[in-house]
Specification:
The chain has four helices and four strands, in the order ααααββββ. The protein has helices spanning 2-15, 21-36, 43-50, 54-70; strands at residues 73-78, 81-82, 109-110, 113-118. The strands form two sheets. Strands 1-4 form a two-stranded antiparallel ribbon. Strands 2-3 form a two-stranded antiparallel ribbon. The chain is elongated. The structure holds zinc ion. Zinc ion (ZN) binds at residues 82, 84-85, 87, 101, 103-104, 106.
Length: 121
């Protein structure tokens, strides 16, 4: 059947590693489905559930945020926060996990949390 032939062809193309686009797309879809399942996530939980590094998750989130906006969804980001003085790391926190508060030097940092919301919700 033609379908079988196409599948084999696609698999061969995938395995030959023509660019890293298919793998990137798959990773992003996996990340998206975890978020679509609902709830709040941190880079760590997303990393665990997608088998991506936290750095990769952060990178994908940036792109995902853009494509979600086109679909009427929004990635809500609760920034990392210092437990001692309440300092908020704002949007910088998406890319890296801050290790120390710039204001009080505490290392007790709550990580940023991510959730998927409809625009009206
Ligand atoms: Zn602090």
């Amino acid at each position: 059947m033609d379908l079988e032939k196409d599948d084999a062809h696609a698999a061969r193309r995938y395995l030959s590693g023509v660019g890293d686009q298919p793998a990137q797309a798959t990773a992003r879809r996996r990340l998206q489905s975890v978020l679509e399942a609902g709830g709040e996530h941190t880079l760590r939980t997303l990393s665990q559930q997608t088998s991506l590094s936290e750095r990769d998750v952060a990178e994908h989130l940036v792109h995902l945020e853009r494509s979600l906006t086109h679909r009427g969804l929004a990635l809500v980001i609760e920034p990392a926060r210092c437990r001692e003085c309440g300092f908020r790391f704002e949007r910088r926190s998406r890319a890296t996990r801050p290790s120390r508060c710039p204001r009080c030097r505490s290392e007790r940092i709550d990580p940023a949390r991510f959730a998927l919301r409809g625009k009206e919700g």
